[in-house]
Amino acid sequence: METVIFLTFILVLSIFLGCELISKVPSTLHTPLMSGSNAISGITIVGALIAAGTGNNHETIILGILALVFATVNVVGGYLVTDRMLAMFIKKDTKKKQ
Amino acid sequence: MTSLPLLIELCYIFSAVLFISGIKMLSSPMTARRGNLISSIGMLIAIAATLGKSGLHFKFIIIGIVAGTVIGIVTAKTVAMTSMPEMVALLNGSGGIASLLVGWAEFHSKITTHSGPILLAIVLTVTIGGITFSGSLVAFGKLSEKLPGKPILLPGQNVFNVILAAAIIIIGFMFCFSNSFTAHYQLFISIIIIALALGILGVIPIGGADMPVVISLLNSYSGLAACAAGFVILNKVLIVSGALVGASGIILTSIMCKAMNRSLSNVLFSGFGSGTTKAKNKDSQGDVKPINTNDAFLVLEAASSVVITPGYGMAVAQAQHVVNELGNLLEENGCEVRYAIHPVAGRMPGHMNVLLAEANVSYDLLAEPDDVNPVMESIDVCIVIGANDVVNPSARDDTSSPIYGMPIINVDKAKTVFVLKRSMASGFAGIENPLFFGENTRMLFGDAKASVSALAAKFKG
Fold it and tell me: One of B210, B389, B398, B412 is an active-site residue; which one?
């Protein structure tokens, strides 16, 4: 129970931190923000790794591998597509020099 | 407490720091790309630290990671910028189902030994994950036009959804206190099924133009699902990162709702735009004044300030590149060009910005409604490309209009307005737009891309 309280404490602080951080992102970057933060939500990959790697029966391992595939798609796809988008946001002056 | 070795715990803290710094650097387009890189390094560290855990079977892990990486790289490299809303929907969905499966695997592996709080976390994980997954698939279907974009509202659907939500709460409660193995599993599976149904039924009644809200909300859910999964496996980095994403999605959702002057519940439950709202603009009658590209060119050539207002129509016509070309030609002609972008223009937050960035429009030319509205009266020409409701003056003047109160871009106050439009069909919300009948409005009918390239061709001589 104490663990749960401790984790909830972390949760609450993180939400406040998230609100502070996100409200500073300009509207121009809202799409990359979404895909980038979506890639971060792929952190569930940690749980998938543990499930796929330590499963003690077939069902757990299969569920774990499936979770791992989806989480990896989420992480890899999310970061790459965000990078592709952000690479396009350039200032005109620097573009002309190139 | 978890019995992870100290080093792994320290790595998790470090990756949380990198996620936070990464998001912080998104506050400017100058640093955003590096921020994304830093955030991805944080993810890599979290993965590496987890792999350092003793007693893992790498065989299964490699299968999963290789398959996921290949799919991820191929889709991310090949997706067209105009399909970005669908891509984001799919990524949300895969995050949701991943969390659901993590919750399921954890439930299955220690089925008899879970304590109350963990069971509650499992219920939350599979519920939120399931809703995110099926909801995102429906959103994907609507955005890619595999499903009809119009809202589908069945009679009694809201009541039915409430019953489903109540059922999840009751079954979840029973699940937490059940101690028979078979009953436990039956309850668990029914929670998953109901959650999936809720996701589908929740998104089906929402129309295409409200998708920015839905995508933001699902984005938030995918974070919350990861966060709940963190409570299942008692892992702090999942909780911190999930909460960051959850907060991000919620803030975007509220920005989108404010930009439409509607409450979240109105967006989610009203079936807005299903054709039940009838426009009753008596004074908007007047003559539509068409213009051809020749005359439009002459006006633009003489203009010293132009504001371009894009909408979903620009994305449909894939006109962003020719729009940039026209913008550059206007600038060479000594004209000041800006792009006014409404927060809900397009199908997701920032949709227009990404398309214009793809076409090499400098990001400092992209303006928000509040930047251009005060100076609108001094603007010579405003070019509206495929936007409708976000430039509808009845949102400002007509109290009987369904979109009354929605903040708009006041293009009608510019000296001249060109509206590029395929036909006189009304916008998504089925509301007549008095802008089209305005004294200073000229309609340039035809495909947006064709019209803009015709104008650009005239500038080039």
Answer: B389
**Residue of chain A minimizing CA distance to B48:** A46
Whose CA is closest to B107, among B9, B193, B181? B181
CA separation, residue A54 to residues B54, B60, B185, B217 (Å)? 9, 10, 21, 33
pLDDT of chain B, 461 residues: tens digit per residue: 445 688 898 999 999 999 999 999 999 888 999 999 999 999 999 999 999 887 788 888 998 999 999 999 999 999 888 888 999 999 999 999 999 999 999 888 876 677 778 888 999 999 999 999 999 999 999 888 888 777 777 777 778 888 989 999 999 888 888 777 778 888 999 999 999 999 999 888 888 778 888 999 999 999 999 999 999 988 899 999 999 999 999 999 998 898 888 888 888 877 666 554 444 444 445 678 888 888 888 888 888 999 999 998 898 888 999 999 999 999 988 899 999 999 888 888 888 999 999 898 988 899 999 989 999 999 999 999 988 888 888 888 888 877 888 889 998 888 999 998 887 765 555 677 888 888 888 888 888 888 899 889 888 87
What phi, psi does B246 have (nearest 5°)? -55, -45
- Does the distance separating the beta carbons of B231 and A95 come in below 8 Å? no
Q: Is the ipTM of this complex over 0.85?
A: yes
Same domain, B313 and B381: yes
Inter-chain residue contact B57 with A53, CB threshold 8 Å:
yes
Domain boundary, last residue among B55, B78, B101:
B78
Q: Which residue in A64, A77, A85 is closest to B60 by CB distance? A: A64
Burial B5-42 (b: 16+ CB within 10 A, else e): eeebbebbebbbebbbebbbbbbbbeebbebbbbbbbb
Burial degree of A33 (CB within 10 A; 0-12, 13-18, 19+): buried
Q: Do B20 and B169 lie in a common domain?
A: no
Chain A hits for B20, Cβ within 8 Å = 17, 21
Indicate the residue of A19, A45, A60 with minimum beta-carbon distance to B47: A45
From B18, B46, B78, give the residue that closes a domain. B78
Could you give the number of structural domains in chain B? 3
Q: B94, B347, B356: which to substitute to probe chain A, counting the most A Cβ within 10 Å? A: B94
Judge whether A17 and B20 are in contact, CB under 8 Å: yes
Q: Name the residue range of residue B406's domain.
A: 293-459
Same domain? For B415 and B341 the reply is yes
